[in-house]
Amino acid sequence: MMLHTRAQGFSLFELLTVITLVCLLVLAAVPAFTDLIDRIRIKQQTHTLYSRLQLARQLALSSGSDVRVRFQQHQGRWCLGFFDEIHGACDCTQADSCRVSEREYRYTIDNHDAALYRTRFAGGGVLGFSASRGIASDSDGFHNGSVWLRSPRNKTFAVVVSRLGRLRLCEAGVGNCPPAPGA
Known about the structure:
By secondary structure, the chain is α+β, with helices and mostly antiparallel strands.
């Protein structure tokens, strides 16, 4: 007598159903993942900007001369450079034009990860730190302000500078961060 046993495994219909469900889950996760990557990149650029501004403040305190920071847009990129009274103005798109104590301080960032959205300083886009206390200053006196960065997916982060020269990072509309300019 012959025993008939059923074959073990999945039918083609079951296999296609599982593959379809997995594909739908992956498609649903892609926009969230893209948003997460965008947020990570803009935060990274904001932290880099924060570090550069901290360096400018520290240079003012250690060099004994006021240090200015200038922001510029140029050919799909933006840059910032430091300069002191000895070396005069700075054009961060030109080599050897941004100097403090005989050393060049010039940084260029591609707009791919974060575009320089707006600067808000009384000194016309130039931020300064005084040599005596590291407080935020410009030619008109002591001022606070902010530098705003915007990601390709419109996430907006800022580095806010207080009149005392203290820096903080914030995301537009979150906590006690001021709203983004033009928002």
